Amino acid sequence: MGNHLSSFVTDFIARFDGPLHFRLIAQPLMAVCLAARDGRRDALEGRGAYLWKFVNKPEHRRYLLESGVKGISKVFVMALALDVAYQLLEWGGLKPLQALLTATVLAVIPYVLLRGPINRLMRISRTRT
Q: Which of 13, 15, 69, 95 lies 20 to 30 A from 87 at CA?
């Protein structure tokens, strides 16, 4: 596992110089925009922070998982497709696990980490006005 992780990190860093490198900025930015949209909606509907609620409220996990998948699925699929294209163009082959990890790093992680804090910020700003 350690060798695969090391290979992933090395290959991920190499992507910054290769073709389609714009996606390394565009996809996390899209994930942030979607997290802002969904975090704002959570705040307006009075829901708690996304990740906190997911971890601490098992009865809400199904809804939160469905909501998160719905919110991020298009960006994740685009991240996956672009990484597959990158791998085929640059390496002439495919490393499916690396494509999944790259899509997760570029799309899912920023979304999950920011949806809750954006919710909190929206709730704080609403109480001040």
A: 69
